[in-house]
Amino acid sequence: MGVMKEEKTDGKCMNIAMELGTEKVLGMWWCTCTDTFTYKLSPKHERELIEGRRKPTKREVLRTLMAVFDPLGLISNFLIYLKVLFQEIWRCGIGWDDEIPEGLRVKWEKWLDILPKVQDISIPRCYRSRTKLSSETDIQLHTFVDASLSGYAAVVYLRFEQGSTVECNIVGAKTRVAPLKFVSVPRLELQAAVIGVRLADRITKSLSVKAHQRFFWSDSRDVLCWIRSDHRRYSQFVAFRISEILETTHVVDWGYKQSRENVADDATKWQGDPDLTKNSRWFKGPEFLWQCQDTWPPNPYRDGETNEELKAHQFYHQVEPAPVMNVLGFSSWQRLLRVTATIYRAAHNFKSHPNGTERMTGPLSDKELQQATIYLYSLAQADSFSDEIAVLSMETDTKMLPKSSSIYTLNPFLDERKILRMHGRISASEYASMDAKNPIILPKDHHVTWLIVRNHHERYHHQNHVTVVNELRQTFRIPKIRQLFQRVKTSCQRCKNEKAIPRPPPMGDLPEARLAAFTRPFSFIGIDYFGPLVVVIGRRTEKRWGVLITCLTTRAVHIEIAHSLNASSCIMALRNFMARRDVPRKIYSDRGTNFTAASKEIIAANKELKEALKKMDQEEVMQNIISTETEWTFLPPASPHMGGAWERLIQSVKKNLAAMKPGRNPTDETLRNTLTEIENIINSRPRTHVPVEDPDAPVLTPNHFLLGSSSGLKPATAWDDSALVLRRSWCASQVEANIFWRRWMRDYLPDLTKRTRWYNEVKPIQVGDVVVVVDPGLPRNCWPMGRIISVNRSKDDQVRSAAVQTLAGIYERPATKLAVMEVRRDEEVSHRLGVPGGECYDPSVGATHLTI
Fold first, then answer.
1. What's 132's DSSP letter?
2. C-beta neighbour count of 112 within 10 angstroms
3. Contact at 8 Å (CB) between 602 and 630?
4. Nearest 5°: phi and psi at 389?
5. Is 0.85 topped by the overall pTM?
6. Does residue 712 come out as left (phi exceeding 0), alpha (psi in the -120 to 50 range) or beta?
7. Contact call for residues 517 and 618 (beta carbons, < 8 A)
8. C-beta separation of 35 from 2 below 8 A
9. Could you report the per-residue pLDDT of 469-520, keeping only the tens digit for each?
């Protein structure tokens, strides 16, 4: 501790010295010439604002308050007035850039009138100015505490007494504004005593000299009664704070001083014109400290008792059978929270002043939402932990929960808002939040908990499941939280929709066309187009399309060339095929417009021909036409897997075409020759394995049924045109054909018995199911949604395709392109929510809604 000599200077010399020798040390201004602390206003402030020529905004009031740097609280008796004023501005609910109300401007100007005096304050840095310390010097630390409805304060002084010489100076002060929520004056006085003890303890540890005695002065009889009596008899608020006070002080250290002698009263009861001179009692201490201790006035306080904050020895516990709000009627946490906050606002407005000055309007504030959140937490805890809360609310010394309680191991306690929390083990962490140190306990089976977990699940976009669980654990303690989150994720409709995939029925039996042995090749055919193929005609190029026709029984192919994709070109290709391969009994194809149009034209032509022959009485010819009439079967839309017999052969044609394609575009003649060669190559492919009993026997190919051998070469015979030779040749060809068919049945047909995919039985698609139509050409979130209106069953009673009603119309799609969504049924909704519910689907919007 330093010593400063007395210097007599006039005001002008002092100002010159301050201007010449003022330095900024740790944010404070230090005049090196006089060894004093001073204060300066920031030059950033607008002059009109400081001089009071215009009203400040909420932001400017706060900026002015924070501009005066006073870490030791030496002028806190002056600054606390502006803190209280700012709290009143905050209660008004205005924005940061809105001007303060006219009623508060008077208080603002009153504070501005005194602000210039702050620059004249000069506080000695040294606590003594006359003599040096000696072993005979008695050093005392005096702490004064006081409180009012506006705030509470504590101020600490050092008193030096050596012989008849007494000196006293301020060391530091601490002020706090009263909370926004109403707190009684005795509790505020107790809070002042707590911050006074903390401030004195911190100053004692910081000083290089040791105080021989410590005194604490208060004008609150209730606080002194609490300190001198058994604090366990009082409420938790009082008991905890008295316990902290007695940890660092003794009962004999506390004394009573009336308000007129309590210096802290200057900060809590601001009169509007505080004494900021260097000899004021705020800086030098009260008058009795400058006198000898023997002459101090006697302590008028006598030990006694107070009934303030006594524990209630009896309590009444009642469980409400039903809450005011039925949380089971909500499926969204945000909606429940806002409805609860709106009810609180309505209750507040009903109780407000008749002139409407206290009514709350506009969007819901954070304070209202926080109040609603606390209510919902307490509601969930009261429903599940009512007995535990009743035990913890008892004002007794022991609050032991029974071991049968489900939260016994969590060591629960009630916070100041009566919310049940868990005593954590990480309270020493400087970076963890209050919720992380003492998380809120929520029951795992309550609907409020379900909505909170679901809200976190939706906030993270139905992804990042580990992160969601970790975020929940930062705030809440929910037993078996992972199991609860898994149930929430499983019941989430959006997650069900995103995970929905088609579940096709087991692979069906092969149609008759694939198993028609001993029939003429190309009796049952499948037809499809491939291309376009570019050809050169003179100096121009044109497009051509390949028409692949395959025999579904022998798997032989026939390739024609179409000049366009219209129905006329399709009919000409079919007629060219029929001229060489005869009329097929059944044609399979997809629903291409050229195929459907060709089918209609063929049906119409046959009908006209029948009518013409009927008029000509050509019954025999008409019967032959009917017996040879072709049946055309179309596959469901978007089901290429049903036409795999020719889709796979088109791939083989394209591969051979790519391998044989010359360096430039071919002519029509070259293209026809190329496709014919490819046709022969594909028809020469083996359909069976090499026979085990006869390795030299040829492998069965489609050409064996068309040409008699794999390459088409005929066996050498004598040039004899007699009828006997021809008859024998025909018989031989029939015998060879039968041999090929028997080998087809023996070696090829067993390979068709095995199912290559879709083995298991699945639940068939039903009328009324909500489905997503899979479209590989679109992103998943763009797939159309609809409802099944009819199903098509195959011979084995399996649903292979269905009609879907969507926003764009009715589509027929195979089961492999329909993903059934698991929409919650009425029974499940009613069972979980406990209220009548239902499910409705509106195809016009393409979504499922849950109506409660």
1. -
2. 16
3. yes
4. -65, -40
5. no
6. left
7. no
8. yes
9. 888 888 898 998 899 998 998 888 888 878 788 888 877 777 888 888 888 8
Number of alpha carbons in the 13 Å side-chain half-sphere of residue 613: 15
Per-residue pLDDT band for 323 (boundaries 50, 70, 90) equals low
**How far is residue 438 CA from its own chain's centroid?**
23
With beta carbons less than 8 A apart as the criterion, state whether 266 and 281 touch: yes
- Per-residue pLDDT tens digits for 121-179: 888 888 877 556 777 788 899 999 999 998 999 999 998 888 778 888 899 999 999 99
Neighbours of 264 (CB within 10 A): 29
Q: Are 700 and 740 in contact (CB under 8 A)?
A: yes
Rounded Cα distance, 569 and 574, in Å? 9
Q: Which two tokens stand for residue 658?
A: 């790519």
Residue 832: count other Cβ atoms within 10 Å of its Cβ: 15
Question: Phi-psi bin for 101: left (phi > 0), alpha (psi -120 to 50), beta?
Answer: beta
Gap between the terminal Cα atoms of the chain: 76
Q: What is the Cα–Cα distance from 226 to 235, expressed in whole angstroms?
A: 11
What are the pLDDT digits (tens) for 238-256?
999 999 999 999 988 898 8
Of the two residues 840 and 508, the one the predictor is more confident about is 508
DSSP labels for 390-433? HHHHS-SS--PPPTTSTTGGG-EEE-TT--EEE--S-TT-SSS-
What is the DSSP code string of 542-596?
Answer: EEEEEEEEEETTT--EEEEEESSSSHHHHHHHHHHHHHHH---SEEEE---HHHH
Q: Which amino acid is at 353?
A: H
Residue 609 DSSP class: H
C-alpha distance from residue 731 to each of 720, 727, 742 (Å) = 16, 6, 17
Mean pLDDT of the 815-842 span? 54
How far, in whole angstroms, is CA 227 from its chain's centroid?
51
Cβ contact 278:169 at 8 Å: no
- Strands (E) across 59-148 are located at 123-124, 138-147
On whether the CB atoms of residues 337 and 369 are closer than 8 A, the answer is yes
Rounded CA separation 803/843 (Å) = 14
Q: Where on the phi/psi map is residue 679: left (φ > 0), alpha (ψ -120 to 50), or beta?
A: alpha
What is the SS3 assignment for 3? strand
pLDDT single digits (tens) 554-595: 888 999 999 999 988 999 999 899 888 888 888 999 888 889
Residue recorded with tokens 């002015």: 64
Hey, which bits of 151-280 come out as E strands?
A: 151-162, 165-177, 213-218, 254-256
Query: C-alpha distances in angstroms, 464 versus 457, 717, 775?
Result: 9, 79, 27
The two most distant CA atoms of the chain are separated, in Å, by 163
